[in-house]
């Protein structure tokens, strides 16, 4: 577990609380970088018959939503704010065959847990363990102050469920909700990104220009993450295709993020069939 939870974006970890309003635009999500074991899973997956997965009907995923707050009530999301965020997620996944329904919400007031110091600290591992409900089909979401850990969000990959079922799910900074104070991420799209990891997608900027990157054929090789909405960005000029700045699995501003590719949709279905069905 220690190896798996080494972070791809650890260089970005120093967060000053006073910059909280804008840090969402500078930090990354804490999706773990891939271990050799993860690569083996990805390779094994290419042996699954995609024709079978293509026939899979729509999948409705039950969501258990945990809202952490500090003792002053910071982080408190109203029921309608949670519903609004869920509907943003459903819009993002509208053409994928996946939909998400709120199966339960819970509130937990605990300043220390709210201001998490990392996603793999002993305290947070215990927290995730204690909150987890359901099985491999169930999406567990925890909203909290991720900026104190230096991230905007975090998700576990589907193949990790087998060995660490109670760590499965998504952590996300509470103030990246639709209408939040974050100037770059105020449409709720970071949650769409994190759920993409939970369904098995990698960042579109995974790997180098030469490798197979995120392992999805129709996302062009991309060397660097994107910020803002850099039209025309091409971090692998010697390879075909521009960077996927509008893809939910990049880091562009919310307003810029609007799509999954057909290859990513196929990949999510494949992963769901392999690990979550
Ligand atoms: C969160 O808000 C609700 C009202 O929406 C209130 O009843 C509750 O006490 C608040 N929780 C905290 C920790 O402030």
Automatic annotation (TrEMBL):
Q: List each copy of the Peptidase M43 pregnancy-associated plasma-A domain by range.
A: 135-271
Ranges annotated as spanning the membrane:
none
Answer yes or no on keyword Hydrolase. yes
> Which residue positions does the secretion signal occupy?
1-20
One of its Pfam families is Peptidase_M43
Report the sequence similarity comment from the record.
Belongs to the peptidase M43B family.
Stated name of the protein: Peptidase M43 pregnancy-associated plasma-A domain-containing protein
Q: What is the lineage of its organism?
A: Eukaryota, Fungi, Dikarya, Basidiomycota, Ustilaginomycotina
